[in-house]
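Case study B.
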Amino acid sequence: MENFYLCPYCRGHLRVGDNIVFKIRNTLREKGLLLLHPEVGNFSSVVHPHFHFEDGERIDFFCPICMSSLDAALDQNLVQVLMVDSEGREQEVYFSRIAGEESTLQVSNEELMSTGMHSHRYKHFILLNENVSMA
Ligand SMILES: [Zn+2]
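Model:
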């Protein structure tokens, strides 16, 4: 069984096939949909070619089901979702919403795992705000 991704607010399924689906908004307040690869550490994403953003632009992420903002309370540059693995274990997954940044942080069982070349920018926020230690 593959990983589920859930909205932390409505617990709706964000994963459809091999994509995690988000509603997004750029700094010009243009709206669109973004597909993210469900494998942690794979930072490929797909948007409609008419949806433009620049490297370094902060993109707003929303649940496409309940429209809640998925901004993480911990840091304005992070988005938060829930991931349920094949054994039913739930963990918080944070990833950067800055275009071009590769950073994913997984928090489970008071452990922190990070993936991506920019994740060092955010580890300290998680460590400060949650009772976790490095895996
Ligand atoms: Zn939702």
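Residues 7, 9-10, 12, 63, 65-66, 68 surround zinc ion (CB under 6 Å). The remaining cases will be described in the next quarterly update.
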